[in-house]
Write a structure and sequence with these properties.
This protein has eight helices and eight strands. It is α/β, with parallel strands linked by helices. It has a single domain (2-249), classed as Alpha/Beta hydrolase fold, catalytic domain (Rossmann fold). Strands 1-2-4-3-5-6-7-8 form an eight-stranded mixed β-sheet, sandwiched between helices. Strand 1 (2-10) and strand 2 form a beta hairpin. The longest helix is centred in the middle third of the chain and has 16 residues, at 89-104. The radius of gyration is 18 Å and the shape is globular. GO terms for molecular function: acyltransferase activity, transferring groups other than amino-acyl groups.
């Protein structure tokens, strides 16, 4: 894969944003002149950035023979929402970034059925939010995603100050309420039920109750949800292993390098 690091001016944010892009190499894929290449947006978690998936997983090795564009944006700790402090991360990713990338990569698909999104932890939440709010993605995957705040209050878990959470989401009176700003359920009620979901969470992960709650809620709303749990914590060791599962789950010709039997 060709690796491209792009810095561009975001009019929506009024600042420079960075994005890493893996692009299929001619000579390694079967159809290098494809004019409708599938795309996967891959979102980082809290404390991460656009290079984190590249640095801490086998991503580049896994997709090196697959006709797939992988886009890894940098959205700081903004939770992929239009924050209360004035940085509209959601608009920057959902509206502006696809148009920016299309200018750089005219062969990138603009078809919903070939456009996918995935993320981990905060990025799992962001992937679900973008998929449900835009109807631009046919498949969405969440690894250890903060899919609700069922069972814990992040303000009490040393995950940022109260001012940080208020600045991101606004005042919150009831973190357990399905009406709170973090809830994806209301978005899911209005979204296209053909969106396919893959959700994974480790059994020792503090976000397991949140994932159990969200996966069941999505199923009850009529979504096709592949929900998996296994022994694991909130760590990259498990997300790296799950990345191959996600790539195999997507409707692409995933060309993993052959292994000796």
């Amino acid at each position: 894969m060709a690796l491209m690091s792009i810095t561009y001016y975001s009019q929506v944010m009024d600042l420079d944003l960075s994005v890493q892009v893996l692009y299929p190499d001619k000579g390694r894929v079967d159809n290098p002149d494809d004019t409708d290449i599938p795309v996967l947006y891959l979102l980082h978690g809290m404390g991460g950035r656009d290079t984190t998936w590249l640095r801490l997983t086998s991503l580049e090795r896994l997709v090196r023979k697959t006709n797939l564009i992988v886009v890894m944006p940098d959205t700081h700790n903004g939770w992929y929402v239009n924050t209360q402090y004035g940085y509209p991360y959601f608009d920057a990713l959902a509206i502006e970034m696809p148009d920016v990338l299309k200018r750089f990569f005219p062969n990138m698909t603009d078809k919903r059925e070939k456009t996918f999104i995935a993320g981990l932890s905060m990025g799992g939440y962001g992937a679900m939010r973008l998929a449900l709010a835009t109807n631009c993605f046919s498949h969405v995957a969440s690894l250890s995603g903060a899919l609700s705040f069922k069972g814990f209050d992040p303000r009490k878990e040393s995950l940022g100050s109260p001012a940080y959470w208020t600045g991101t989401f606004g005042e919150i009176t009831d973190w357990e309420s399905p009406e709170n700003p973090h809830s994806l359920i209301n978005l899911a009620k209005k979204a296209d039920k053909t969106t396919k979901m893959y959700i994974w969470c480790g059994e020792q992960d503090f976000l397991l109750p949140a994932n159990n709650f969200a996966a069941q809620a999505f199923k009850e709303l009529g979504y096709e949800v592949d929900y998996q749990t296994a022994p694991g914590r909130h760590e990259w060791y498990y997300w790296d292993k799950q990345l191959e599962v996600v790539l195999s789950w997507l409707p692409i010709d995933f060309q993993l390098e052959e292994r000796l039997s």
